[in-house]
Design a protein that fits this description.
Blueprint lengths: L2 H32 L6 H20 L1 H10 L5 H19 L2 H24 L3 H20 L7 H8 L5 H23 L13 H15 L6 E5 L5 E3 L5 E5 L6 H20 L15 H15 L3 H14 L7 H8 L13 H20 L7 H12 L26 H20 L3 H6 L4 H10 L9 H9 L4 H14 L5
Parallel strand pairs: 1-3
Antiparallel strand pairs: 2-3
Length: 494
């Protein structure tokens, strides 16, 4: 066996170890947010810190660097993808001390518990100290990684390799006025009627299972549970776990969240299993991951053809519901200036992300203190969305991300929305009967297109390259605005 073959065999063994450890972390975090009793928090922090440090040691191992060096001139595209993917992780692990990695894991565990307690009390003060610790640790982490075009790039690379702050800032600057003008225009028109009612949560669980199974999420390889803040984890394509939050007085609010997570889950289930243990059988970035969830939640799940299929199913599960597809479509596409990101409509959603992105930049640069964060949050909402929260739970405490130290993640949502809009228009060109299929409840052609254009590639390429290969030179900002305008134009407001 040659030197390159030996290095590749050794590298794949190490990748398998890292993937197994990452799956254990995912499982522990899933349990933390679904099943773990509150008293288990301290033990869980030790467990997560220990495994995180072990992963760090295996990733920073000089031997790993030697294997990557031997393979750096390979002609095999799979090998080169692994060298690129692991090379990023290795460089970062070498630069960041294992003690700091363990401290971040411990602080994230403490942060989540503090966030839950703060949410329970509706009191930011109970979370402030934990958040200060997390911000300080992330600053230390960024500092360890040396110069960059922008320090925030170090955080972005963890979630969206291939994307940069220099790309995001002008994109957000372009979106801000276009969305503001759109929202002003729509707000001057009559609004569709809002749907109200009561739908038993237990019946909603059965309903949700039926919907996501029809969309294509394989329940024999996954499950759906409840959590305070919905999320998805994949421990491999045959063990993908979704969570959702259902509301007795908001059927669509719970359903769209469930469909969103099912979009994540179908991506995980579609990754190339034959490339497990090469670093390629993984998502190419969280922006691309969010494109899948937002595509199913918004492009499909808020369309009129979708409701033409869904309404008979609603009536099966909730016989007293007599709303029409047009009623549900109007409700799903109302544009309202609102406080809560996860309940925001498509038009205002990205403004929620712009606010978080700008606050993160200010926090991590030191321009904004954690103590001043609630006031800065409220001011940003007044300025950009024209609303202001009355309580921390409706404001700075609404998202779980910062409690887990996930700085640099929020831009993924807008990246995902932009990708999803372009996927819509390219899919319409490639699958002319797409919307007829949706109205008939045949989601197979939609999922097949996503499998071919996105899922099967795993992380053989970075997300921006996978996106361009799928849609060519489409302008995602123009596509998103076209999508929003088309949805509003289809509303029947007579």
């Amino acid at each position: 066996m040659g030197v390159e073959d030996t290095a590749w065999t050794s590298l794949k063994t190490r990748i398998c170890e890292l993937e197994a450890l990452e799956a254990v972390i995912q499982l522990l975090e899933w349990d933390q947010q679904t099943m773990m009793p509150p008293g288990g928090s301290a033990h869980r922090g030790v467990q997560l810190a220990t495994i995180s440090a072990l992963m760090h040691d295996k990733t920073s191992d000089p031997q790993l660097g030697e294997w990557l060096g031997v393979l750096s001139d390979s002609d095999d595209p799979h090998v080169m993808a692994a060298v690129r993917n692991l090379g990023r992780s290795h460089r970062r692990a070498v630069q960041i001390p294992s003690r700091l990695v363990a401290d971040i894991a411990t602080a994230s565990n403490v942060g989540f518990g503090a966030w839950m307690a703060a949410r329970e009390a509706n009191d930011f003060g109970q979370f402030e100290g934990a958040l200060e610790r997390l911000v300080s640790l992330r600053r230390d982490e960024v500092a360890c990684q040396g110069p960059a075009a922008h320090p925030y790039d170090h955080l972005l690379e963890q979630y969206d390799p291939g994307s940069t702050t220099a790309q995001l800032q002008p994109m957000f600057a372009r979106l801000r006025p276009e969305l503001a003008n759109f929202i002003d225009t729509v707000s001057s028109r009559p609004r569709p009627k809002s749907v109200s009612g009561k739908w038993a949560v237990n019946d909603q669980r059965c309903f949700s299972h039926s919907v996501i199974s029809t969309l294509g999420f394989r329940l024999n390889d996954g499950r759906l549970d409840s959590a305070a803040h919905p999320f998805t984890v994949g421990m491999g394509r045959n063990d993908v776990r979704l969570t959702t939050h259902l509301y007795e007085d908001d059927l669509l609010g719970g359903l769209t969240g469930t469909i969103h997570e099912a979009g994540h889950g179908m991506y995980e289930q579609g990754l190339p299993a034959d490339l497990a243990g090469t670093s390629i059988a993984a998502a190419a970035g969280m922006g691309l991951h969010e494109s899948q969830s937002r595509f199913w939640e918004n492009v499909i799940g808020r369309s009129l053809p979708f409701f033409e299929w869904l309404v008979p199913l609603i009536k099966q599960h909730f016989p007293d519901d007599n709303l029409s597809p047009a009623d549900w479509y109007g409700h799903a596409n109302r544009v309202e200036r609102s406080l809560i990101r996860i309940q925001a409509d498509e038009a205002t959603y990205n403004l929620h992300i712009i606010i978080r992105f700008e606050l993160e930049l200010a926090l991590l640069s030191g321009e904004l203190s954690v103590a001043d964060l609630p006031d800065a949050w409220n001011a940003a909402y007044r300025d950009l969305l024209g609303v202001s929260p009355d309580s921390p739970n409706d404001g700075v405490l609404q998202d779980v991300h910062w409690s887990n130290g996930l700085f640099g993640y929020f831009p993924s949502y807008t990246i995902g929305n932009l990708y999803a809009a372009s996927f819509r228009y390219q899919m319409q060109d490639d699958v002319p009967d797409m919307w007829t299929n949706v109205a008939d409840g045949d989601f197979g052609p939609v999922l097949a297109w996503l499998r071919d254009k996105v899922h099967r590639h795993g992380h053989s390429l970075d997300a921006p390259d996978i996106f361009r290969a799928a849609v060519g030179d489409r302008d995602p900002v123009a596509d998103l605005m076209a999508h929003l305008n088309e949805r509003q134009a289809a509303l029947n407001l007579n």
